[in-house]
Amino acid sequence: MTAMVIEQPCRIVAIGDIHGCTHALDAVLAAVDPQPDDTIVCLGDFIDQGRETREAIDTLIALSQRCRVIMLKGNHEEMLLASLGSESAKNSWLMYGGVQTLNSYRFCGGIDVIPAAHLDFIRSCRDYYETDDHIFVHANYLDDAPPEEWPEYVLRWSLLDAPLPGPHMSGKTVIVGHTEQRDGEILDLGYVKCIDTACYNYGWLTALDVTSGQTWQASRWGVLRESPKEPKPQRWPLAMGAD
């Protein structure tokens, strides 16, 4: 008898705001076990606040050799890049987590401690990523305009807050980060899902298979959550903060 091989469909897995928490990232990736045909979409803010930005970027670069990786630009990546040409922008970035990023590179006095390869990796981040069924963006969206028309403030800074956007005109589900869900649960409004579950602030780093709905979560110390809860439909975000 010939054994039948059942091919597993390729997955699209979104990962929320990492914020330099490389132990959480390592644990989530080990659980997801990305395959060559999978696509991993990182929703931005993979730097700052946590202590291991350098290690997290190394992990993401290595991951890109293993499967397809889509990196989105968050407000923290925007602040870092702006700081390269402005002293005032650098001072602002340092106040919002840049110090921890520089310390991960054994900071010795200047932003040039960050390797060119890492800066190029950050510069390569996209504003958004779109598939047949989903739109991925760091912060928020306009429901009555295509993604290419969304302003930078909406893409990277706007909170998923009142007034909440409605379903996107395309009918696609929007996947976002940025607005911390401090109870550690995915905010699921059906037409939009927020998976920033406050990893740095003692919550979880969340990975979401956007097709099957399977989730994986890990703490900043790299401990997997035993039974991540199914996303609960909610009428309102549980947190008004952004990281």
Q: What structural keywords apply?
A:
Purple Acid Phosphatase, chain A, domain 2; 243 residues; six-stranded mixed β-sheet; alpha/beta; globular
Describe what you observe in this structure:
This protein is an alpha/beta fold and 243 residues long. It has one domain: Purple Acid Phosphatase, chain A, domain 2. 26% of the residues lie in helices and 16% in strands. The chain is built from 6 helices and 11 strands. The protein has helices spanning 22-32, 53-63, 75-83, 87-104, 116-123, 152-156; strands at residues 12-15, 39-42, 68-71, 128-130, 134-137, 173-176, 187-188, 192-194, 205-209, 215-218, 232-233. Helix 1 (22-32) runs parallel beside helix 2 (53-63) and helix 3 crosses helix 4. It is globular.
Short summary:
The protein is α/β, with parallel strands linked by helices and 243 residues long. It contains six helices and eleven strands.
The strand line-up of the biggest sheet is 4-5-6-8-7-11
Regarding quaternary structure, what we see is single chain
- State the end-to-end distance: 56 Å
The stretches of 5 or more residues where confidence is low (pLDDT under 50) are 1-7
The count of strands amounts to 11
Any idea what the radius of gyration is? 18 Å
Q: Report the sheet with the most strands, covering strand number, pairing sense and barrel closure.
A: 6 strands, mixed
Strand content: 15-25%
Shape: globular
**Secondary-structure element pattern, one letter each:** EHEHEHHHEEHEEEEEE
CATH architecture: 4-Layer Sandwich
What is the typical, i.e. mean, pLDDT?
Answer: 92
